[in-house]
Amino acid sequence: MRRRLLAVATVVLATLAGAPPAMADIAQSDIVSSNPVDWTPHVLDGTVWSLAVVGDTVIVGGAFTKVADSSRRTTLARKNIFAFDLNDGSIRSFAPEVDGAIYSLAPGADGTVYAGGAFKSVNGTAQRGITRLWLGSGNRDTSFKAKVNWGDVRALATRGDRLYAGGTFTAINGTSRAALARLDAETGAVDSGFDARLSAPGLNRTRVEHFDVTADGRKLIAVGAFLKSGGYDRTQIAQFDVGGSSAQLTGWYTDDYKPQCMKGFDTYLRQVKFSPDGSYFVVAATGRASSAQKLCDSAARFETNRTGQQRPTWVQRTGGDSLYAVAITGPVVYLGGHQRWFDNPYGTDGNGPGPGAVARPGIGAVNPNTGKALSWNPTRARGVGVRAFLTVPGGLLVGSDTDELGKEYHGRIGLFPTS
């Protein structure tokens, strides 16, 4: 059945003049439908890595070259970024030229979007790793002058007049910043007082794989290939107070990500999201090593406002399959990857599910209080995995690398509507 989002979604999501909206996961009252809408467009190759919404426009970033309308009658060239209407799926004319993958997106003020990734130029002009684009024209905002010195930008978030960026860079605009920085959202100038001082002694490089900021802009949780913040041990995960002028490392820490998974992983943490109220966060991990003692190939909930060494409130184990994405709406935690099962602490990748395991191919949902699988089981073609979730008032957007979602054809993009 063809569905439409309620007009209220547009009203709720409308960007207020002068201030970019916060893009933490939004609260929803119930689990979404397992039947995706029929009218979203399709990405025909590659992978969708990131999603953002500005007003009634969905922006999609990744590594791809072609998109099609929902009927698949019209195919358009779109390299690594495109946009469509949130209410009916129609593809926008927005088509900037970037010469590398888009790994991250964040909404901007006044009809703009920030894009981060592995690109070196935008519309033929050198601007490495990060840019601000006008949605109406696809042009660069030339007043935003940020660029990284090397590597890429893997995560972005806007809070008020601040833009946070994480990735593999070691400097922005010539200012030394190891993998995490805060910028002026209008100009791209580096915040001189904000330095997380991340380092990874013994690893090839320091990398922030992902981070999230609470909706009120006061706390930031980062995950990735790092071992220290300043002089303090913080293996793969660190929490900061960021409401003021600096990045203040909190007393929160965990040693649960110190044990190694499969050899060769400099980090096995892939995504982290705060709950809408900021009281807890969930980490999605890979690792290629099933274990009932380690947090490889798992999702784990941790409480935010605590100090000292922390253990997870719960752990959801797949039994050896990677998780890459998480979204939290209040009553539900959504998880995506290339997993076959949930509730599978005793299963193994080669020997199948263990006692109590339930099939949740590629996508599923768990209870936020217990971490146990909910009955929601739309299924998806597993591929490498879900890379992006985005909650909107009308449902849950999903970006991945396969073309079957909810037992229907959906090329790398889908939207599960609110029930």
From TrEMBL:
Keyword annotations of the record: Membrane, Signal, Transmembrane, Transmembrane helix
Organism in which the protein naturally occurs: Actinoplanes palleronii
Transmembrane parts of this sequence: 48-68
Family matches, as Pfam families: DUF5122 (PF17164)
Highest rank taxon of the organism: Bacteria
Keyword hit for Membrane: yes
Signal peptide: 1-24
InterPro entries assigned to the protein according to its UniProt record, in alphabetical order: Delta_60_rpt (IPR013431), Quino_amine_DH_bsu (IPR011044)
Protein name: PKD domain containing protein
